[in-house]
TrEMBL record, chain A:
GO terms for molecular function: iron ion binding; oxidoreductase activity. Pfam families: Ald_Xan_dh_C, MoCoBD_1, MoCoBD_2. It comes from the Bacteria. InterPro entries: Ald_Oxase/Xan_DH_a/b, Ald_Oxase/Xan_DH_a/b_sf, Ald_Oxase/xanthine_DH-like, AldOxase/xan_DH_MoCoBD1, AldOxase/xan_DH_MoCoBD2, AldOxase/xan_DH_Mopterin-bd_sf. Keywords: Molybdenum, Oxidoreductase. It comes from Pseudonocardia hydrocarbonoxydans. This is Carbon-monoxide dehydrogenase large subunit. Residues 19-131 form the Aldehyde oxidase/xanthine dehydrogenase a/b hammerhead domain.
TrEMBL record, chain B:
Pathway: Alkaloid degradation; nicotine degradation. It comes from Pseudonocardia hydrocarbonoxydans. Keywords: 2Fe-2S, Iron, Iron-sulfur, Metal-binding, Oxidoreductase. Residues 1-77 form the 2Fe-2S ferredoxin-type domain. The keyword Zinc-finger does not apply. This is Carbon-monoxide dehydrogenase small subunit. GO terms for molecular function: 2 iron, 2 sulfur cluster binding; metal ion binding; oxidoreductase activity. Residues 160-183 are annotated as: Disordered. The gene is coxS_2. It comes from the Bacteria.
Length: 754, 183
């Protein structure tokens, strides 16, 4: 029986559930014996000139080995993301100016961890405050510049050269426009960032760090330190969540490496949560202006998306994510005219980069909100408006107005499935009953239909499969799991070909000496690239084994089959084990799979919320989802990815927001302040299955890591608005907190009184 | 200051700074690294251990406050990786963990919850674990795991949560594996 598609429990778990996983801060590697502890003194101001730094008192504190300022660092300031405005570089430790609260200014190295904070408290830094730049429109005005020498706060522009078409909406009976906030979020992985470094006698740096992509972390750190990539050996221990924020390296990692070199001692760094909430990259942070036009029969004719995106102080991956937002702008709809543009601006805040969805949730939120606004304007059921505009299955494959090469999709089927399973008609009847009765707790129903792009960052991935003489198997992969379960899933793929149980298959990742090439785990790319590469490598190993066995068994290759770890001559008792073949000659295959294109998973969500119209509090009662990412390798793991995504999607809609005050002070820098959801705020989820394959890889698989987030956010936001729509409310920005809902109800009421 | 406590059945003692957190005593003094520290505001619960049988966030307790106490961490729960405690085993079976960082605290909190409420409802599980944050699972499978560990059928308590097909039968493609178009 095939292992594919079965609910295999994880190989990782027995250790994780007994001794615990080994994260970077848990390492007891002997090379780190006697390591110094790094404590960073960070800027308390969002924008200021540094006028003096006094570290003398700190240097004489107990346990202090070194206190380092930027004056001692011989590395050039770095452009942290190659595609950003070239002048927007970050100093390793600035001596002239700080640009966000949390920017590291002084490094303190101590023998013991607790001594670090004591010494850090003795560092004196004088600042001359400058005006903070928080608001994106203020940033765009260039009145206050973060980088005076650059002369603008704009890092990147997409579609800015062409003017919008002034006739775009000429044919439309109805046109609606709205400014929408897609608020800034913290990835909030439970493990904060951490790195440990030591230089060997061979002149090589060994760097352990919490990352989603060891190979790109190696390349970035080497580049920042000005050494050859071959001089850097990155090892990824277990990683306690990433969600996009741990792609590659952070500048602190290189600093840890530099400090280890400078002191000649190993150095360990593990940040606090407060540091993490200001120092680790954040996500979303777009101000969108949507305009949608169409006819009263429900047909949408034109759509425009105008984006201001927040890069934070030093542009990183967030500088290019609006490209994905533009590409996915029309979503699942067949809209004749679509145009978009995006301007990426620096502000005196934490840098932005990928966070679960990374550019696509922003596109989906914009178009789905637009569809609701349009539906409300023409007085049509929002699910019906969607249905009338969906791309039809026979149109695939196609290139969209956003330029995306959609591979396959059954959008109406997904919509029908969730409407049916949720009992949409009944829900609308119950909603009407509560409205008619004027009940305090109203019902809201939100529908989203979405498509996203997965595997869009890197199409190619390596894999190696080796059968050892003892019958065990080692799989090397360039993907980098941090909760996704590749140790189990990739073992299943190899097991399927080799007929060797997954308990005898070890999957290794994240060690750049062992696996020099790889693109890591991000953008829901792993199965469709790295997984397919393992599948392919194991298949090639079977062919290699058959050829070798043909000699041993004096049989025709075509008569051989691999069953239960042996190459057998079909219909006879003759055979030779793969282990025996490996004993004669190394039995190993390196393979690479390149999909050449991304895939486009899709789905539909129905969210049901209850809103107390007196307090404004919204509670998600139910969410029913289709997240179709093609055939499912391991439903247990796939559902886990969907659950996590749905929770983060609900949470963006209802709860979470990174907030800065007008002076750039972060108001959500701890878990006591940031609205991280607990089990009590979430319901159990109802998942429906659909599996529409892609033609882009031999397994037919697409990515599942981000789907739930992308679909759930607009469905829940829409449901909250829908619950109070009868009171005259058309839109509430996220998070739809009780205060915002209550204010929207009151604003609508006073509007109605006029 | 001298501190002495029984941890996972072993007598331990050390001279510690009065400010040393119990979490750091466990991790750094004793080398028991399963207990994680995920925040600095007693919000996340990754550091949850049992002190004299009660669940405690060990980042909010000084080591000296646990003097003479009996402490249990996740390392002391199961006999071995192959012989997991029923609660840990339920987390595995129900896929109640992904990255694993919240897991040691979550499992210990679940053990404590089930001691106090042996047959909890879904709501009781959700509210009982409110002090333990997880970013990966959306809690869906954690709740199932705790229900399963209590001897209940999670599907019966929650009402499914995973519909294998839409009531209309409108979903034609079966879940599971195919090798793609035509293959």
């Amino acid at each position: 029986m095939s292992i594919m598609g079965t609910r295999v429990v994880r190989r990782e778990d027995p250790l994780f559930l007994s001794r615990g996983a080994t994260y970077t801060d848990d390492l007891t590697d002997e090379r780190l014996t006697g390591a110094l502890h790094l404590t960073l003194v960070r800027s308390p101001l969002a924008h200021a000139r540094i006028t003096a730094i006094d570290v003398e008192e700190a240097r004489s504190a107990p346990g202090v080995v070194a206190v380092i300022t930027g004056a001692e660092i011989d590395l050039a300031p770095a452009l942290l993301f190659g595609g950003a405005n070239k002048g927007m570089v970050r100093s390793w430790l600035p001596t002239d100016k700080v640009r966000f609260v949390g920017e590291p200014v002084v490094a303190v190295l101590t023998e013991e961890a607790y001594q670090g904070q004591d010494a850090a408290d003795l560092v004196e830094i004088d600042y001359d405050p400058l005006p903070a730049v928080i608001d994106l429109k203020a940033a765009a005005s260039d009145e206050v510049l973060l980088f005076e020498e650059v002369g603008t706060n704009t890092s990147n522009g997409f579609g800015l050269k062409d003017e919008f078409d002034e006739h775009l909406f000429d044919d439309c009976e109805v046109v609606v426009t709205k400014e929408i906030v897609n608020q800034r979020l913290a990835a909030a992985s439970l493990e904060t960032r951490a790195a440990s470094a030591v230089w060997g006698e061979d002149g090589r740096l060994t760097l352990w760090c919490s990352t989603q992509a060891a190979q790109s972390a190696r390349d970035e750190v080497a580049g920042w330190l000005g050494v050859d990539a071959a001089q850097v050996h990155v090892i990824t221990p277990d990683v306690g969540g990433g969600f996009g924020a741990k792609i590659g390296a952070d500048p602190e990692f290189a600093l840890v490496g530099w400090l280890a070199k400078h002191t000649g001692r190993p150095v360990r760094w593990n940040e606090t949560r407060s540091e993490n909430m200001t120092g680790m990259v954040q996500g979303r942070a777009q101000l969108q202006t949507v305009t949608i036009g169409g006819n009263r029969d429900g047909k949408v004719l034109a759509y425009r998306l105008d984006v201001l995106a927040d890069a934070g102080a030093y542009p990183r991956l967030g500088a290019v994510l609006p490209m994905f937002t533009r590409m996915m702008a029309p979503g699942v709809y067949d809209i004749p005219k679509v145009e978009s543009r995006a301007r990426v601006l620096v502000t005196t805040t934490t840098s932005t980069a990928a966070y679960r969805g990374a550019g696509r949730p922003e596109a989906t939120a914009a178009i789905e909100r637009s569809m609701d606004l349009f539906a409300a304007e023409i007085g049509m059921d929002p699910a019906e408006v969607r249905r009338r505009n969906l791309l039809r299955p026979e149109q695939f494959p196609l290139k969209t107005k956003g330029g995306a090469p959609y591979d396959s999709g059954e959008y109406e089927k997904a919509l029908d499935a969730v409407l049916d399973a949720a009992g949409y008609t009944g829900l609308r009847a119950e909603q009407q009953r509560r409205r008619d009765a004027g009940e305090v707790v109203q019902l809201g129903i939100g529908v989203s239909v979405f498509v996203e792009i997965t595997g869009g960052g890197a199409f190619s991935e390596d894999a190696s499969v080796e059968v050892h003489p003892d019958g065990t198997v080692t799989v090397l992969t360039g993907t980098s799991p941090h909760g996704q379960g590749h140790a189990t899933a990739w073992a299943m793929l190899a097991s399927e070909h080799l007929g060797i149980g997954i308990d005898r298959i070890t999957v290794l990742h994240g060690d750049t000496d062992l696996i020099p090439r790889g693109s890591g785990t991000m953008g829901s790319r792993s199965l469709q690239t790295g997984g397919v590469a393992v599948h392919q490598a194991a298949g090639e190993l079977v062919e290699l084994a058959k050829q070798r066995a043909a000699d041993v068994l004096e049989a025709n290759v075509d008569d051989l089959e691999v069953v239960d770890g042996s190459v057998n001559v079909r219909g006879t008792g003759q055979g030779v084990t793969l282990a025996a073949l490996a004993e004669k000659e190394r039995l190993q295959v390196d393979s690479n799979f390149d999909s050449g294109a991304p895939t486009f998973p899709f789905g539909a969500h129905v969210a049901v919320v209850e809103v107390d119209v007196e307090s404004g509090k919204a509670v998600v009662d139910r969410i029913v989802t289709v997240d179709d990412a093609g055939p499912v390798l391991n439903p247990l793991l796939c559902e886990g990815q969907r659950h996590g995504g749905i929770a983060q999607g609900i949470s963006q809609a209802l709860l979470e927001e990174v907030v800065f005050d007008a002076d750039g002070n972060p108001l959500t820098a701890t878990f006591a302040d940031y609205a991280f959801p607990s089990a009590a705020e979430l319901p159990s989820f109802t998942l429906l299955d659909m599996a529409t394959p892609t033609h882009l890889n031999p397994l037919g698989v697409k990515g599942i890591g981000e789907a739930g987030t992308i679909g759930a956010t607009p469905a829940v936001q829409s449901a909250v608005v829908d619950a109070v729509a009868h009171l005259g409310v058309r839109h509430i920005d996220m998070p739809t907190s009780p205060l915002r809902v209550w204010e929207a109800i009151n604003a609508a009421a006073s509007e109605g009184d006029k | 200051m001298k501190v002495r406590m029984t941890v996972n059945g072993d007598d331990t003692s050390a001279d510690v700074e009065p400010r040393l957190l119990l979490a750091h005593y466990l991790r750094d003094t004793l080398g028991l690294k399963a207990t994680n520290v995920g925040c600095d505001t007693t919000s996340c619960g990754a550091c949850t251990v049992l002190v004299d049988g009660e669940s405690v966030k060990s980042c909010t307790m000084l080591a000296v406050q646990a003097d003479d106490a009996t402490v249990q961490t996740m390392e002391g729960l199961s006999a071995s990786p192959e012989d997991l405690h029923p609660v840990a085993e339920a987390f595995r079976t129900e896929h109640g963990l992904q990255c694993g960082f919240c897991t040691p605290g979550m499992v210990m909190a679940a053990v404590s919850l089930l001691r106090e409420t042996p047959r909890p409802t879904e709501r009781e599980v959700r509210e009982g674990l409110e002090g333990n944050l997880c970013r990966c699972t959306g809690y869906h499978n954690i709740v199932r795991a705790v229900l399963a560990a209590s001897g209940q059928d999670p599907d019966a308590v929650i009402g499914g949560g995973h519909a294998t097909e839409a009531p209309s039968g409108g979903v034609e493609v079966a879940p599971g594996f195919s090798t793609g178009s035509g293959a």
